[in-house]
Design goal:
By secondary structure, this protein is of the alpha+beta class. It contains five helices and seven strands, in the order E-H-H-E-E-E-E-E-H-H-E-H. The relative contact order is 0.16.
């Protein structure tokens, strides 16, 4: 990916449709597990992947993109936009399944948690589960490793103007 003042990466409808079809397969497998031996994992599979069947169509029929600029990373999913500025980001890493994690620095995390609400709880829960506060899904028209390399290149290009502080252990 060539670096310009702005890089727009659109969501992949094909990847979303494949994930949606996968949800149907796992719901069917869960129903079979329930029918054959009333296995508890069948209920978990039906519940979790059933939500995917309901939610993923929203991603197919709505805007989904990542815009990388000198200011930061703007994400848009299901027509909701949010910006993470470069000076709020401590680093990036792989979460698994092609997803990319974003670790916020201590100042940015403190400000976001201070606002309260469900989003504040999700930052802390996500950090405990994955080691990252935010994430970028694998549902874009670029290979995850290439996107991760691109994000790291842009982060180096626009370093934070922060007073050195303690590492983020939250």
């Amino acid at each position: 990916m060539e670096q310009k003042n702005e890089l727009l990466i659109k969501g992949s409808k094909v990847k979303v449709i494949l994930a949606w079809l996968g949800c149907f397969a796992f719901v069917a497998a869960g129903l079979l597990m329930i029918k054959v031996d009333n296995h508890p994992f069948g209920y978990i599979s039906v519940g979790f992947f059933g939500l995917g069947i309901l939610v993923l169509p929203l991603m197919i029929f709505s805007k989904q993109y990542i815009k990388i600029t000198s200011e930061g990373i703007e994400q848009c999913a299901t027509n909701n936009k949010w910006l993470i500025k470069w000076d709020e980001i401590e680093g990036f890493g792989e979460i698994g399944g092609g997803n990319i994690g974003i670790r916020l620095n201590a100042r940015a995390l403190e400000e976001r948690v201070a606002k309260g609400g469900a989003k504040a709880t999700s930052y802390l829960t996500s950090k405990r589960m994955t080691g990252f506060h935010e994430g970028i899904s694998a549902m874009y028209k670029v290979k995850p490793k290439k996107l991760l390399n691109t994000l790291n290149q842009w982060k180096e290009k626009y370093p934070p103007n922060l007073v050195p502080g303690p590492p983020n252990n939250i």
